[in-house]
C-alpha cells in the first residue's frame, strides 16, 4: 500500500502541530520579550495625537502598564488591571464614542 | 452520417486527445516545480481563481466581532503578529526577508494596504467587511501548497481576531508605533495576559 509511506509524515506533522501549539502560548514568548520603547512616544508629534484613535489608546495602555510598575501602589495597579480584563466588554463601548 | 453524430464524434475525440495529452504532460515531469520558477500565466490564473473563489465562499458566513477597534485587541494581536508572522509578512521598515525572497507564492507584505502588496485579489482596495473575513479565514485555515500555515490549531478565534484587528492598522503604523504595540511588556505577564 502506497498510503503507508505517508504515515510517518502525518505522524511528524501531528507532532509538529502539537509542539508548536504549546510554543504559541503567549507566556512562552516572554523569555525573549522586548520592552515597549515608551520613550519614543515623547518624540512623536503631539499635535497629531488623537486620543480617540485606538492605536493611540493602545500605546497609552502599553506605556501606562509600564509606569504602574514603578509605582509604590503596585497592588492598586494590579487590581485595576484585572478589573479591566473582566469588564472589557463595557470598556469597548465606552471607547467607541 | 448526420451532422449531429459527426459533431459528437469529434467532440469525444477532442476530449480524449486533451485527456491523453494532459496525462502525458503530467507524467513527463516537464512542469517546473521549483519555487524559484514562477508559474506560467495560465497556471497562475487558475490557482489564483481557485484560491480566491474558495476563500470567498468559505468566509462569507463569518461574523465580525463588534469590538475590532478595541485597543486591547491591538496589543494582543500586535504581540502575536510580531512573534509569529513578521518573519514572512514583514514589519514597518523591513521590505524583505529570506521568506519573502524564497517562498512562492511570496508572502504579501502586510505593512502595505491590500491594493499595494503585490498581487491581485478581491476586495483589495479598502479594508471592507469581505476583506476582513477573508483575512480571518486565511489566518485560521491557512492556504494549501503555499507557505501560509493554518493557525486555527493552537489558537482560538479570539486570538485570531486580535491579529485581524491589528492587521487593519498595520499599514499606517510607523516603526516606533509598531515597536510599542507589539512589545510584550513584562508587566502584562504578571497581570496574567
Ligand atoms: Cu493580498
From TrEMBL, chain A:
Region Disordered: start-end pairs: 63-97
Cleavable signal peptide: 1-23
Keywords associated with the record: Signal
Comp. bias intervals (Basic and acidic residues): 66-97
Protein name per its UniProtKB record: Pentapeptide MXKDX repeat protein
Organism: Oceanobacter antarcticus
Amino acid at each position: 500500500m502506497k498510503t503507508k509511506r505517508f504515515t510517518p509524515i502525518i505522524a511528524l506533522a501531528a507532532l509538529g502541530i502539537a509542539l508548536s501549539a504549546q510554543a504559541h502560548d503567549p507566556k512562552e514568548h516572554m523569555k525573549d520579550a522586548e520592552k515597549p520603547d515608551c520613550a519614543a512616544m515623547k518624540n512623536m508629534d503631539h499635535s497629531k495625537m488623537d486620543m480617540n484613535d485606538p492605536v493611540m489608546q493602545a500605546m497609552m495602555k502599553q506605556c501606562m502598564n509600564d509606569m504602574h510598575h514603578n509605582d509604590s501602589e503596585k497592588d492598586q495597579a494590579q487590581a485595576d488591571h484585572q478589573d479591566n480584563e473582566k469588564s472589557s466588554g463595557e470598556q469597548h463601548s465606552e471607547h467607541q464614542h | 452520417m448526420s451532422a449531429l453524430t459527426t459533431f459528437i464524434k469529434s467532440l469525444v475525440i477532442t476530449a480524449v486527445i486533451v485527456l491523453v495529452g494532459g496525462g502525458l504532460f503530467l507524467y513527463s515531469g516537464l512542469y517546473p516545480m521549483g519555487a524559484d520558477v514562477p508559474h506560467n500565466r495560465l497556471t497562475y490564473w487558475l490557482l489564483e481563481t481557485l484560491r480566491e473563489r474558495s476563500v470567498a465562499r468559505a468566509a462569507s458566513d463569518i461574523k465580525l466581532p463588534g469590538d475590532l477597534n478595541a485597543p486591547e485587541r491591538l496589543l494582543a494581536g500586535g504581540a502575536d503578529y510580531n512573534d509569529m508572522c513578521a518573519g514572512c509578512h514583514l514589519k514597518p521598515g523591513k521590505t524583505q526577508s529570506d521568506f519573502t525572497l524564497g517562498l512562492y507564492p511570496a508572502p504579501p507584505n502586510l505593512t502595505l494596504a491590500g491594493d499595494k502588496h503585490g498581487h491581485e485579489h478581491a476586495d483589495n482596495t479598502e479594508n471592507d467587511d469581505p476583506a476582513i473575513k477573508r483575512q480571518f479565514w486565511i489566518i485560521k485555515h491557512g492556504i494549501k501548497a503555499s507557505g501560509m500555515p493554518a493557525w486555527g490549531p493552537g489558537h482560538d478565534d479570539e486570538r485570531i481576531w486580535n491579529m485581524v484587528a491589528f492587521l487593519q492598522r498595520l499599514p499606517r503604523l510607523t516603526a516606533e508605533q509598531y515597536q510599542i504595540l507589539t512589545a510584550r511588556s513584562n508587566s502584562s505577564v504578571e497581570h496574567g495576559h
